[in-house]
Amino acid sequence: LPSEPTKKMMMNEPVGSLFSETASNLVGKPINRVDGSLKVSGQAPYSAEIHRDNQVYGVLVSAKIAKGQVENIDSSALEDIPGIIKVVTDPKQFLRNPQQGGETKAPTQGVSEIFYHGQPIAVVIAETFEAATEGAHALKVSYKDETEQAALNFTKELPNAHEVNEKKGSDKNAVNGDPEQGLADSEVTLDRFYHTPSQSNSPMEPHATLAYWEEDKLIMYTSNQMIASCKQQVMDALDLNKDQVQLISYYVGGGFGSKLGIAPESIAAAIAAKELDRPVLICMARSQVMEATVRRSNTRQRIAIGCDKDGIINTMIHDTVSSNLPGEAFFEPTALSTKYLYRGENRRVNYEQVDVNQVLSGSMRAPGEAVGMIAVECAMDELASQLNIDPIELRRRNEPEKDPTQDIPFSTRQLIACMEQGAKQFGWEKRNPKPASQLEGDWWIGTGMAASARGNQLKPSEARATLQVDETKDLGVKAVIETDMTDIGTGSYTVFSQVAAEILGLPIDHIEMKLGDSSFPPASGSGGSVGAASAGSGVYLACEQLRDMLAEKVGLYPDTIQLDKGQIKRSGEHHLSNTEAAVEAVKDKTEGFKQKVNKKTGIALPEPATRVYDFSNFQSYALADIVSEYDEQKLSAKGQIKPGKNGKSHRQSSFGANFAEVAVHKVTGEIRIKRMTGAFAAGRILNHKTATSQCYGGMVFGIGSALMEEIIHDKRDGRICNHDLAEYHVPVNADVPQLEVILVEEDDPYTNPMHIKGIGETAISGAAAAIANAVYNAVGVRVYDFPITLDKLL
Ligand code: MOS
């Protein structure tokens, strides 16, 4: 056997899944997080907690103008501060922000150009964090200030909106039929503008990096969502090759998009560590995370719907303007789900961008759908009111049979099941559709709903699975799984352990899940809700490969073995001869996917002479015994998955429905969420507990988006006025009532070998609209400008 065979898989056809064939049935179970006790006992090391001997501390210094150049950095005031080591400045723009979507700019020799207020321009290094902080405050920077020429007001800049870069951007414009004519010819129309504000990703763990060099190799403990692409960014920024960079993110305290790319503190730490030849730790302050990493763009969205008197939609227009720094490719892809959510032969999705001198905009918590579906789903609710049709019924009538833009089938689509199950649980039938009809004491009560949808994708991912002898384990063997996939609080460690344990027939504590290190095989990383499906498939295939190797090792046809509690058991009665095996193998080949053939030899069984064991009295064999036969006492396999044609031949998306009940105070206009129910269908569920938690998170984000989250940019210089969690409001416990989540049963054989789909960002997509629609039902006021603060209801 080769020591590391690679089992590649392209997803081109519906595939079977091993999960249904195994006995232990661990997948799906709501088990606790395998890293839970480490986290709550403070033993899970986050980047800022890593310590190296001789380590020093850096604090970033930010620009205080919106546009212009750094003229001079005067560090004379720092000379009297004990512990100050050095001020590392930015002659090559390395701190600008090499985040996702950022174009590589040619450095301007000797000049630091400022693009936005808050842009890091230098880092002060000291023996202590306190000294570095004091030094950063004392540094005197003079500027050639061009703030007067800066673009700082999104609304004012709207007339200057320009085309987006479709090639490098986050979605594509699209037109089907004749939308304007369709609208003009419709019996019933609705045409509205919606505004959503700049938002802050606000992960709980601020960005932090400890960087040090071992000769020419840079090692960084940093808080990242995507190791492989972040490593590439570091290589690009510092002109290093792949052997010269190692990124490690064992534990990540949330990212929500702000850690998809490398943030400025990483590169600053790497450069300072090189200059000083000492390990450098830079932790961003909360204000810096908000000012200098990434934000979600504000948007202005036009939704225009044309339908007949029965609500059958023929036209859907979704035009969006969002903002970013000049020259950036990323734009907020608000209309991703508008392309397939409802029927309609005429459709237009159009994106435009305005340039602003404000911190980079990029991905945040379901980039696109999270704010795009606010517009679409509020419009659907208003249309339902206008037509006097129940909002669920209106959506049911507009259920497309196929993806209406591309004329391809859905892999699975359970929007109706989600609405029905959610409605039943929520008690939707008791609803009074007449707005402002229910006053309880001082509070107007209202209910609302909205659909959810989030596109599903598969990204190339690899994993390595190794069985090795371990006397400390009950069964004398353990499986070590390695992939550079991260766990950003989502439960990757746990769900992948479940997958590996299930396929290898081992108890879960016999799985050692190793994530978040660029020295492991590269995977999708955590973003776009693709991680569990993509990196999980890599793990699945590696374990399946290992299972096949074990079968070969004991001389059995892979499909006839059962792995259970560290034993290889023969599940089939007959023991195939070589001839039979060859015939079976050919048969299997013609059946397509499940090809249990050794690709090197072309047959399913090894020659009798190479057989290690005598199976005349075969009952079962211990994995540990087989593994210990090997010189190195381990057996290793690699799995790899790549996107195939499925993503193009089928529209893949998770669907759901959110229901909300709100109370609005009749005097103050204060809005309280009383309860929410969400029903979501995302293929098979790997772990009901972590999946449910993901949905809770999405619904909580929905509350934030509907009622409170809003970056306030100072109109004079674009600075973020509310750059901390005291002023930038995210929902706290008191804002979040009991939430109910229903995971609607689904199995999607077109997505990946596990039949799962992305769930993380499904619940947020549409959640804010459900709340807005409930507010309308409570008080009869439609708010088009988010968040819905009390002043907008009075
Ligand atoms: Mo998510 S915003 O794709 O990390």
Automatic annotation (TrEMBL):
<dbReference type="InterPro" id="IPR008274">
    <property type="entry name" value="AldOxase/xan_DH_MoCoBD1"/>
</dbReference>
<feature type="compositionally biased region" description="Basic and acidic residues">
    <location>
        <begin position="159"/>
        <end position="171"/>
    </location>
</feature>
<dbReference type="InterPro" id="IPR046867">
    <property type="entry name" value="AldOxase/xan_DH_MoCoBD2"/>
</dbReference>
<feature type="domain" description="Aldehyde oxidase/xanthine dehydrogenase a/b hammerhead">
    <location>
        <begin position="41"/>
        <end position="147"/>
    </location>
</feature>
<dbReference type="InterPro" id="IPR036856">
    <property type="entry name" value="Ald_Oxase/Xan_DH_a/b_sf"/>
</dbReference>
<dbReference type="Pfam" id="PF02738">
    <property type="entry name" value="MoCoBD_1"/>
</dbReference>
<dbReference type="InterPro" id="IPR000674">
    <property type="entry name" value="Ald_Oxase/Xan_DH_a/b"/>
</dbReference>
<dbReference type="InterPro" id="IPR016208">
    <property type="entry name" value="Ald_Oxase/xanthine_DH-like"/>
</dbReference>
<feature type="region of interest" description="Disordered">
    <location>
        <begin position="158"/>
        <end position="182"/>
    </location>
</feature>
<dbReference type="Pfam" id="PF01315">
    <property type="entry name" value="Ald_Xan_dh_C"/>
</dbReference>
<dbReference type="InterPro" id="IPR037165">
    <property type="entry name" value="AldOxase/xan_DH_Mopterin-bd_sf"/>
</dbReference>
<protein>
    <submittedName>
        <fullName>Molybdopterin cofactor-binding domain-containing protein</fullName>
    </submittedName>
</protein>
<dbReference type="Pfam" id="PF20256">
    <property type="entry name" value="MoCoBD_2"/>
</dbReference>
